[in-house]
Amino acid sequence: MTVLVLLALVASPAIAETQATDAPALETGVTSSVDRELYLEVFINEEPTDLIGAFVHRSDGELASSPEELAELGIKPRTKAQDRTGLISLDRLPGLTYRLDEAAQRLYVSTGDAGRAPRVIDLSVTADQERLKPRSDTGAVLNYALFAGSNALFEGDGALFRGVSGSFDGRLFSRFGTLNQSFIAEYSDGAFNGFTRLNTTWAYSDPERLLTFKAGDFISGGLSWTRPVYLGGLQMRRNFSLRPDLVSLPLPSFSGTAAVPSTLEIYTQNARTYSGDVSSGPFRVVNLPVFTGSGEARVVLRDRFGRETVTTLPFYTSSMLLREGLLDFSVEAGFPRRNFGLRSSDYDERVYGIASVRYGLTNWLTLEGHVELGEDLVNAGAGVAFPLGTYGAASVALAGSRSGGQTGGLINATLELRHNDWSFYGRIQRAFDSYQDVASITADRVSVGSGLPVFSAGVPRAVDQVAIGVPMPLDLSSLNLSYTHLKDADGDRSQILGLSYSQRIFERGNLYASAFTDLEDDDSFGVFAGVSFPLGGDVNVTTGVESRPDGVNGFVELAKSEKLENGSFGWRLRTSEGETPDRRASASYRASFARFEAGIQQHDDKVRATVQVDGAIVVAGGGVFATNRIDDAFAVVDVGASDVVVKHQNRPVGRTNRQGRILVPRLNSYERNTVSIDPENLPVDASVPATREVVVPAYGSGVVLDFGVSDTPNAALVELVDADGIPLPVGLSGRLRDGDEFVVGYDGQAYLTGLRARNALMVLRQDGTSCSAEFAYEPDPGSQVTIQGVTCR
Q1: Quick one: which of 567, 705, 689, 720 has its CA closest to 637?
Q2: CB atoms < 10 A from the CB of 492, how many?
Q3: What phi and psi values does residue 659 have, to the nearest 5 degrees?
Q4: How far apart are CA 55 and CA 505, in angstroms?
């Protein structure tokens, strides 16, 4: 490997120069009976690379190195110049000459751009950042949401209390995975209606292999042209979210050449994303930070004389594409689940297996595949996705099925385009004959008399979708048109036509309008238009009109948004006047242990009241905490002292309780989270090993961070003087007998820990001699103990 320090070599001075050709190497005038290893500072075209390369000087005079070493030095390795040992001889690289100054341990290489390996500039945010291993300690979380409502007020013909319902989501987590259980319950009209189980799932993720395993209830994987289903069984799938630093999309890259040492600046979407120096020669920029859709990058190359070369590079990235070499898949098997949310355990008796896969064959071609197998069903399909230059991307897929002795097929095509401010999205799907999938053959046949909405579970026979974004002459405005045509398996049709427009007005106001209609149903239409603007203090006002089949209403809404910080509150006032009046008022408050909301509504002549409470109970780190809802990761911070401010990403989240602990919510799973403490309120005699810790938590889990603060470190500030009473010089080192080392500071003071009733120490003087001293120590809790005038003889 290339090293950054020169190694001293004892060798006979020699200077050799050679011209590389495909012919046998020329005699250099320096020969030896054995090969020798040389570490040389490398110059290319008389410019330093600031790198040291490892080379082998062979007995025949040739100079060779490994392909990896040459590429890192900026020399392009060629397979034809590689010998049986795996090394590449510089003498055999075409177009390259070199001069070896062995006395100065330098190598001067001359070659053109064709013989140079481009310097790779990686713009990935985490390219140079150490990747920490995700953590998951042991604990439990129960999220809850309780909702209570009243019957009509002021009527007096029934009970005021209507009932209460609740949704609960509990999970146990550890390094072995997470067990999740969710359910809902309801009490109404004086009777308890029981529990309805939702999900029971165990999940485990392996960040190294980017795999997530699940057992229990889950949604199957799928592609844009398939229909995922709920299963009870087993699943293994690729999970790119376990590595937020890994970008699965094909990101744009570009190459260039600097004639002389220059400064390189890169701008994406008018924001500078990179600035650095490049040496002369070729370079390549990878992992450009972009988002899905179209954009452009501007590359500015500025030489030492201030001359600029500006290049604009358009690009297009799409979520339909997968980066070259990446494999995305999901494999599962289980019993299809029906009536989710209505019944606790309604599973089909048949077992089905489903597999979906995507593979980035190249950055311009992504392959897709999907299979569904089970009793009386075989379904398989394949597709491809590819870019359309810098303007868009497209995909095409074909599938076929056999079920009940009948066959069918499906075709799906998707197109997305963007140019300047124009955008287009289109999708066409057709199902032929008796095409079936797991969803269609396992769904319940809901009867019209069941009281539930009737939806066809079969594969739609036709789906057409079009969305167009149109630039407008006014700045900060947009116009969007949409059309959706659907023909379900029963032959029923819908044609939804929609239009929306928005325009920024004043400084921060917004004007908006939207409309929709079903061309197959004259009574299905709606218009919504209005204007909103802030009044200051997080208060916004919105007013407008809405037109529906039952009439036209005008509305006004005044609202103050609630923040995520504890102690924040919000409120909302809304009135909608028309044929059917609708008036509402609500207020919310976020405490440290839960969130509360109360409201009252008048619809027509009926008035009802509601109350809602959301929160969580957490058991972790030796404590029980009541807090707001925990949807992702969190940390329990154990400081060891009360009333200490704790911060997350440098933002205060609260103070430790009497036990010295605090729960820090809203950590980002699989990302670096910085948790720190403010030592200002710690006792003056407290020992603080660290005030900051960086942690990467697993999804849905908690981590316990122990900062190890000790109230009784047995420490003192000791003033050391010589026999004449003069403080010892600053910088001297010493050691307690059977204790830690220390350094003498200004005025001879040294901070010593781990003290006993009687202590002895030794200090090493600047002249190599030493002195020793003994002193007594008596702790004084809550105060900084200072011992003065300890003589070191």
Answers
A1: 705
A2: 14
A3: -85, 0
A4: 67
